[in-house]
Amino acid sequence: MRNLLLALAIAAVAAPASAQSVRAGITAWQKGDTAGAVAIWRPLAEKGDADAAFNLGQAYRLGKGVPLDLAQAQGWLERAARAGHVDAQSTLGLLLFQNGNQVGAMRWLKAAADAGEPRALLMVGTALYNGDGVPADPVTAYAYVSRAAAQGLVPAKATLADMDAVMPLEQRQKGVALAQSMAGAKRPVPAQPPTKTVAGKLAPPKTAAAKPAAAVPKPVVPAGGKWRIQLGAFGQKKSAEALFGKLSVKLGGRQAYYVPVGAVVRLQVGPYESRAAASAACASLSPQPCFAVAAP
C-alpha cells in the first residue's frame, strides 16, 4: 500500500501541470460544480490547451457553468479542432451541420472520420452515398458507415442495414475491403456484408449547403420536414416524457411526438428537413439509442 501511494505521488508530480488542471476541472464537473470546472479550463484553453478548449466549448454548447452560447461553443471547439483534437473536430462538424453550414461541417467531419471517429464516419459516409456536397461514391460511403457500425454506433448500424438492402453485393464487398484497408489492424473492422439484396433505392432527401458563417446562429427549427428521430418505445408515456425532458436542450427546440403503438408509446422528435439531418441529430446524442424515421 505504501509503495502504491508513493507511485501515485510520483505520477502526479510527473504529469504536466495542464493535464492535472484539466483533470481537476473534470472532477469538479462530475461533482456538479460546472462553474468551477469552467473557471479551471478557461485559462488553460486561452493558453492553447486543446483538451481544455474542447471542454469549454462543450460547456457553452450545453449551457452548463456558463450561459448557452453556440457562437462561443463554435469558437472554442474550433480552437481545439485546429490543434488536432478529434472529438472537437467531430463535435464541431455536427454543430455546423445542424445549423446549416454543410461546407464547413464536412471539413471537420472528414478530418475526424480520417482519425476513425464513429459519428464522423457515419456523417461523411451518408454524404458520400447521397452526393450531398461531395461527389457520390457508394463504395467509399459503405466503407465509412461500416467502420462506424463496427464500433457499435447504433445509428450507423441502422444506416448500414438500409444500404445492405439496396446496394449490389459487389459494391458492398468492395466497401468492406476498403474499410479494412482504411482501419488497419488496430481498429474495429466490419464483417462481410449479407448476400441478400432487396430491390429498392436508398436516397435520403438532399440538404442544400449553406455559406460558411463566422459564428453559429441559434438553431432554427424548420417549419416542416418529412423526417423525425425515434428515441425509444416505452410502456408508460411519462417515461417517454422524462427522456425528452432530459434531452430537449440538445434537440434545438424541436417537438416531441408520442406515438402510441399497441401497448407502447414511441418517442419521436422532429421535424428534420432530411434523413441526413435526422442522422446527424442521432449521432450527436450518442450513446443514446436513436434512428431516423419518416414522419407519418
TrEMBL record:
InterPro entries: ISR_Activator, Sel1-like, SPOR-like_dom, SPOR-like_sf, TPR-like_helical_dom_sf. It comes from the Bacteria. Residues 184-204 are annotated as: Disordered. The keyword Signal applies. One of its GO terms (molecular function) is peptidoglycan binding. Residues 1-19 form the signal peptide. Residues 221-296 form the SPOR domain. The keyword Signal applies. Keywords: Signal. Coiled coil: none annotated. This is SPOR domain-containing protein.
